[in-house]
User: What shape does this take?
Amino acid sequence: MKHVTSRFDARNSQDLETGLEAARAALAANRCIVMPTDTVYGIAADAFSAQAVATLLAAKGRGRNMPPPVLIPQAATMDGLAVDVPGFARELAAEFWPGALTLILHAQPSLTWDLGETRGTVALRVPDDEVARQLLRSTGPLAVSSANRTGNPAAATAEEAFEQLGESVEVYLEAGPRPISGDALSSTIIDCTLTPPRVVREGALSLEALRAVVPGLLDADGQPDPALADDTLPQPEIPAEEEALPESGADAEESATEDADAGDSGDAIAPAVPGEAGNRGATQGGESARTP
Assistant: This one.
């Protein structure tokens, strides 16, 4: 049976309620929707439905090697989806969530989901958008990537998303331009599976603001804050026989940096960044690093 695409104006309270109900029904039926985020618009699917995630990736024209990030309604949800969450990740979440920060963490091994080739990680974010969080509170975690075809600019409105995704999406929630003010920047992505943690993609949050919370944070080149003395930072132990070997790059970062954000749907994160809907300025090549 052919499904009809519906569009709702979330700026109208009555239309918003109708639109949210339609979005919940579409997600429950393993279909995709487009929703606003604080960064850009994102295409969303039930994170626990392999069929729905596959539909999302197909709509964008991307493969399983570019898994989408997961948006959650509140920081407390983090412990249900991730394990071994380090203290510095909790400090970052407490300071910057809701907001344009995506954290890569070790995924709960007991979860029955398939986001793609995540290498045992999951990229989480709490968006600073009331429409998005209102939906997330009723649906639970959603896999969200920027609402655009891979290689095209991220959508700043639901109308722009429709022009690219068309009837591959069942419900569009229009809430006006995103971001509401300022330039459309993707979320900043931090790999918290490493110690010290490392920036995978620079975005809306500055390195200075992040280091005010976690001074030992490494930049995207793996470098510490030059203002800190070398002996104040944890140094990895290198076996004597390996000292002469060249350092290997972090493979996990490759998949997370390619997309942009979609409502901050960050997708191209090394271990598991999916695409955030608002990551228009992702530093990865192409759109795989877009995380809303």
